[in-house]
């Protein structure tokens, strides 16, 4: 079995991630913050450790500004629905995942004005295009750091500088770059960073975080028990409790913490270098095949470890089935990003998406390429 769908969920997980999840479930999985007994305190301690690990990775000054969520979508909805109001203006792009586009469409129906920037044929956004869209009521710029369809990396440092200069909030979707590429909230002037635990951070599904740079008051998305101020019917205003109603996913969070510790031990640069090497290796192999159409940037300085392509004359789903029959697992279709396919001309068939992870090898990619040759020969 060859797994090449790490852009959806990373696999396999480091052994210490799996071991800690099992240990938690077997030995100390009580309710964090809801008791004075040893097991509850142990959960609290380990959850705080994960907040600290996340804050160090992304340079969040206060670990209490790390809000645990169930995924990136959850984190983005918290900030978009809590912060954006009627008559506000928001700038985003055609490159966004539905976790941004759908909340923004919902806000549009409530009176929010939304501007979507197309970018060039490779999905690169220009600072000039963003600046031209800024209005007196522009509240936020919301962009992904790396496209989950074509891998395009945006220059969030320059965009962050522009947002700071214009006093506009900068919200970044780090779903495809967290744990793979440096994200520094202070350096890049990121006000809100949404990340998944189950992708590049190598943690379990059902985990994620919203990182908040400075204390900005906005409405909570849900209300309920937090284990704090329990004698009051009012939702606490302090972080992280304001946005963490209900029992946290302790087994997932402690697993996520171990995933980040694995990244720190191996080194973010080493992970990045290996994934870039493998991505370049695959791109070169695909470019040598005249029946393969690749999309997005081919320069490793401008893309993540995602490669999207199609085989001429074939639907992406056909290719996916052929690979699945050979136990090679990729993703096909539209990848929850309807607009980017208009940019690259695949709105009628989607793409085959290979997303490479740290545990992949050149041998995996050689088998993929050989299988693509066989699938195309069978078709013609």
Automatic annotation (TrEMBL):
Recorded protein name is: cysteine desulfurase
Q: Which GO terms describe its molecular function?
A: cysteine desulfurase activity; pyridoxal phosphate binding; transaminase activity
Q: What class of enzyme is it?
A: transferase
Q: Which cofactor does it need?
A: pyridoxal 5'-phosphate
Where is the organism placed in the taxonomic lineage, from the top?
A: Bacteria, Bacillati, Bacillota, Clostridia, Eubacteriales
* Family of the protein in this entry: Belongs to the class-V pyridoxal-phosphate-dependent aminotransferase family. Csd subfamily.
Q: Which UniProt keywords apply?
A: Aminotransferase, Pyridoxal phosphate, Transferase
Q: What is its EC number?
A: 2.8.1.7
Annotated signal peptide: none
Q: Which reaction does it catalyse?
A: (sulfur carrier)-H + L-cysteine = (sulfur carrier)-SH + L-alanine
Q: Which residues form the Aminotransferase class V domain?
A: 2-368
| CDD domains noted in UniProt | SufS_like
GO biological processes: cysteine metabolic process
NCBIfam families to which the protein is assigned, alphabetical = am_tr_V_EF2568
């Amino acid at each position: 079995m060859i797994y090449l769908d790490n852009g959806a969920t990373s696999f396999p997980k480091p052994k210490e991630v799996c071991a800690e999840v099992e240990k938690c479930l077997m030995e100390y999985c009580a309710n964090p913050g809801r008791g004075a007994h040893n097991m509850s305190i142990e959960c609290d301690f380990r959850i705080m450790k994960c907040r600290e690990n996340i804050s160090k990775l992304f340079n969040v000054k206060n670990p209490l500004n790390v809000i645990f969520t169930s995924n990136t979508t959850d984190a983005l909805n918290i900030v978009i629905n809590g912060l954006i109001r009627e008559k506000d203006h928001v700038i985003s792009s055609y490159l966004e995942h539905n976790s941004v586009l759908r909340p923004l469409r919902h806000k549009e129906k409530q009176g929010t004005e939304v501007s979507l920037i197309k970018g060039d044929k490779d999905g690169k956004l220009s600072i000039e295009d963003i600046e031209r869209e800024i209005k007196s009521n522009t509240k936020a710029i919301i962009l992904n750091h790396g496209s989950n369809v074509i891998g395009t990396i945006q220059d969030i440092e320059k965009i962050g500088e522009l947002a700071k200069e214009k006093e506009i909030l900068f919200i970044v979707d780090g779903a495809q770059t967290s744990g793979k590429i440096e994200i520094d909230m202070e350096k890049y002037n990121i006000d809100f960073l949404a990340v998944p635990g189950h992708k590049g951070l190598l943690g379990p599904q059902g985990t994620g975080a919203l990182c908040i740079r400075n204390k900005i008051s906005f409405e909570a998305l849900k209300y309920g028990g937090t284990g704090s101020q329990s004698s009051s019917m009012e939702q606490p205003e302090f972080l992280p409790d304001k946005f963490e109603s209900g029992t946290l996913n302790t087994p997932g969070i402690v697993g996520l913490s171990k995933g980040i510790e694995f990244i720190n031990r191996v080194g973010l640069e080493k992970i990045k270098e290996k994934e870039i090497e493998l991505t370049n290796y695959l791109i070169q192999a695909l470019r040598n095949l005249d029946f393969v159409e690749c999309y997005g940037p081919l320069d490793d300085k401008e893309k993540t470890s995602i490669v999207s392509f199609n085989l001429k004359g074939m639907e992406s789903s056909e290719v996916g089935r052929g690979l699945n029959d050979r136990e090679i697992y990729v993703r096909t279709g539209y990848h929850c990003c309807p607009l980017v396919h208009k940019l690259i001309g695949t709105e009628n068939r989607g793409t085959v998406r290979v997303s490479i992870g740290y545990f992949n090898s050149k041998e995996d990619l050689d088998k993929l390429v050989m299988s693509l040759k066989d699938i195309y020969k069978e078709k013609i």
